[in-house]
Write a structure and sequence with these properties.
Blueprint lengths: L2 H15 L5 H4 L7 E2 L5 E5 L4 H6 L6 H12 L4 H4 E5 L13 H18 L3 E5 L1 H8 L5 H4 L3 E4 L3 E6 L2 H5 L9 H18 L1
Parallel strand pairs: 2-3, 2-4, 4-6
Antiparallel strand pairs: 1-3, 5-6
Helix pairs in contact: 1-6
The chain binds uracil.
Uracil (URA) binds next to helix 4.
Amino acid sequence: MSDKKIKLEELKKECDKCCKCSLGNTRKNMVFADGNIDAEIFLIGEAPGADEDNTGIPFVGRAGKLLTKLIEDVDLSRKNDFYIANTVKCRPPENRIPTDEEKILCEKYLLKQIEIVKPKVVVLCGATSAKSFLGNKIKISAIRGNWYKILNDIDATVIFHPSYLLRNHSEDKGSPRWLTKEDLKKIKDFISKV
Ligand code: URA
């Protein structure tokens, strides 16, 4: 087993035991990550929903299926090109947005995952994830597609959350779905160059 895999499995075991916030008491499953531990793209969503809580895998519900489709539409592979996690590892009741306290208590695990995986780019998927790294004042429609440096020197970019895209069906030029595909193409282009 690779060193990376061993470190991630150790971290996963720690997360499985975690009850630092109240979400630990209501979860069915802790949702650690999905995808390729050697991927160049590390995507961070908001929080597990009901489907993720039931399976222990991020982005497997309706939003996840749409995210997977958009990734495939630009000829990337969710399984090979992405490592996927969330700002918090346990489902907030009624799918509410995780609180700042929950995010801060869970951040240690997410930062450790990033440190172990060593991605070339971090994709902040949706406002909750973007706010964790870029500050609470951001407006997603204003910053998506922009590039930032986070955690000292890691390239990061922002895309719309697929739950928002589920409410916006248009694929017309300039629509949120169209913009997201453009953003994913830019990410594909970026990893082919670095
Ligand atoms: N939404 C998220 O942000 N993450 C998931 O894992 C599922 C839905």
